[in-house]
Amino acid sequence: MLLLSREQILSIFTMRDAIEADKKAFVLHTEGRAKVPLRINLDTEDKSGQCMFMPAYVGGLNMAGIKIVSFFPGNAAKSIPVVPATVALIDGTTGLVTAIVEGTTLTQLRTAAIAGAATELLSNPDSKIAALFGTGGQASAQLEALMTVRSLKEVRIFDVDPERVRKFVMSNQSLADRFGTTLVEAKNSDQAVDGADVITTVTTSSKPVFDGNRIKPGCHINGIGSYTPAMREIPADILQRAGRIFVDNREAVLAEAGDFIIPMGEGIFSPDKIAGELGELILGRVTGRTSADEITVMKTVGFATLDVVTAAAIVEKARAAGVGTEVAL
Ligand SMILES: NC(=O)c1ccc[n+]([C@@H]2O[C@H](COP(=O)([O-])OP(=O)(O)OC[C@H]3O[C@@H](n4cnc5c(N)ncnc54)[C@H](O)[C@@H]3O)[C@@H](O)[C@H]2O)c1
I want to staple 116 with a disulfide (CB 3.0 to 4.6 A). Which of 5, 145, 276, 326 is the partner? Predict the structure, then answer.
């Protein structure tokens, strides 16, 4: 069994690798080759923590896997991760666990790669200005994904906490320098989105994070954060204005994302407006952007197929490079 730490993953697996792995996962999902049961959530007796189990079997790879993610808010005071995650990969021929991969890094990569893939497929190729909403655990990888797929001159960073914006810009300066991109601390959401060609929202917000009226024609928007019916980031008027709306997993998004569920309840959005899943776009079953002025939207809530396919890709590269620690149980 191969064990892979954060450092080992990052030494062999790039954002481009993650984007290609996600594209493969989207296709396998759309082709109906992945089985993804509902997530199992277990609360601890004293309710101080929750353990979540996200399994999937992916035909095509003939691999199963499970991501174990926990949420223990009290860990912050102990200086250990509040949301620790681990992915176990299982060989579909023998049933043996073949690898255990550090799951926080994997989640950051595969989640950012969703926006990376969508931005590559849907945004205008000459996009120069991006805005990133949220500066939490996922944000740095999201920034890297945007800069990987488009030659960005400027990325505006906005968070409701200006101190977090300042720290984020400082700690991501060298990453941005590698891509020749300037990071700008946005003072408010208007300043972040005015004239932006691409927007990624990766927040824990329960209300729209920007004013839809300010979005310029041709903008592409990635909605990453909301994953419950009460959470939302994308304003409803943008869903109405958008020419093409894509999702990672139609069923999951319509069951979980407040971005769609709230306006559906208000009668101002219909699922018919969804052009398709990203997998359908990659397979050429539906068309993507149809004009440079069209607003495009990608909404994701994430699903375990992405974790299993990305873990398999990481393990393949690690084995080829002789990276990781082999253990026999
Ligand atoms: N789609 C997926 O597959 C996927 C995967 C992982 C995480 N997520 C979700 O992405 C979101 C962000 O994850 P994280 O780990 O970075 O969270 P985090 O808690 O570390 O950071 C969230 C950030 O959002 C900021 N924020 C809240 N409301 C805002 C607003 N209105 N405008 C600007 N900033 C605002 C907060 O101040 C904070 O800095 C979470 O909701 C998480 O569940 C989605």
Answer: 145
